[in-house]
Amino acid sequence: FFLLLFLPYMGGCTTNTPPEYCYINIATRDRICTQTIEMITNDDDGKQRDVKCVINPQFVQNFVACYLKMRQRRGSSVAKPKILYHWTRQHLFEPIINGGLKVPDGKTVAHTTDKGYYGRGIYMSPDPNYAHSYGGGATVFFVTLALPGLQHKALKRNDFGKPLKKGYDSHISQDRNQMEWVFFDNHQLLLCYQISLDQVEYVTNVLNKVIDDVFTYS
Prior knowledge:
Blueprint: H1 26-41, E1 52-53, H2 57-74, H3 76-79, E2 82-86, H4 93-99, E3 122-124, E4 141-146, E5 151-154, H5 156-159, E6 170-173, E7 181-183, E8 189-195, H6 200-215
Parallel strand pairs: 5-6
Antiparallel strand pairs: 1-8, 2-4, 3-7, 4-8, 6-7
Helix pairs in contact: 1-2, 1-6
C-alpha cells in the first residue's frame, strides 16, 4: 500500500528536461512497485530462507519514480536497471538498512578513505568481489538494483571529490576496468538483499528476472 502522491503524467519530457519537471503516471508507478516487492520477497521455492531481504517499500517507490522519470528523459534502454554491489563495515549495516545509502556530504556522511576518486558520491561495483576490503572484515554485503543512466567516464585527475558531471546521471571509472560506479542521488539505488558471496548466483537470478519481467515491459 503506497501513500505518496505524485503529480499526474503530463508528457513532453526530453533529454534536456530537468528530472523535477518529469511527471509520472501513478497507476504505472504503483504497479511496478507492487510487482518489484512481490518478486524480490517471494519465497515459494523455499530457497530464500537464508537470504536477508532488506527491501523497503518507501525506497521502492522512490526508485521506481526515478526510473520512470529517467525513462522519459533517456529512453528505455538507458534507463534499464543494473545489478550492483556495495561493501561496507558492519557498524554501518543497520543505518544503511534503515535509512538507505547516503551521498557523502563531508559532515554527517563521509567517504571511508578519501573524498572520492571518481566523484563525491556513493560507490558501487558490478563485481561482487570488488572492493571486498571496504567491508573491514565483514562477510556480507549489499545487493542493489541501480539506475546508472547516462554515465560520465571519470578519472581521478578530473573528478576527485567533484559532484555529478553536468548532463550525466552517474559516473563510471574510466580506468580500473570500469569497476567503480558512482551515484549522486540515492533514489537511483534500491537496496534489495544483504548476502554472502555464495548467495550471489541466487539473488542475481531473482533480480535479472525482476529487470526482465517488470522493468523491461513496463
